[in-house]
Amino acid sequence: MPNVRLPLSGDVTQAINPWNWMLSAVGNQFGVVNINLGKSADPQLEKQILDEVGSYGRQLGRLGDVLGVLLQHVKLSDLSDDDKKMIWAFESQLVEIERLKAQRPASLRKP
Known about the structure:
It is a single chain. By secondary structure, the protein is mainly alpha-helical. The chain has a domain at about 40-110. The chain has helices spanning about 20-25, 45-50, 55-70, 80-105.
């Protein structure tokens, strides 16, 4: 008897990978934050900073900490309502970040 294969029957030899379809549509970018060291003015220095000083998140966290301290010493009454709203939004983000950090198990927390 001849070996006849009808559509949707028998062995499938084609690799079906939906990730390929999705990633090719977005230029092989995957994730919310993608770091391309090739566009840096000094990619070797940037990589060294990330390895030895801290990730972008760590660096932004330190900036947030410092700005939080400075905001404690600002007279908000001297600011416009729009400026106060921007500061309130920033402080709200800092509070939310601290809330999320507190929810992490102690074993996963970094100093």
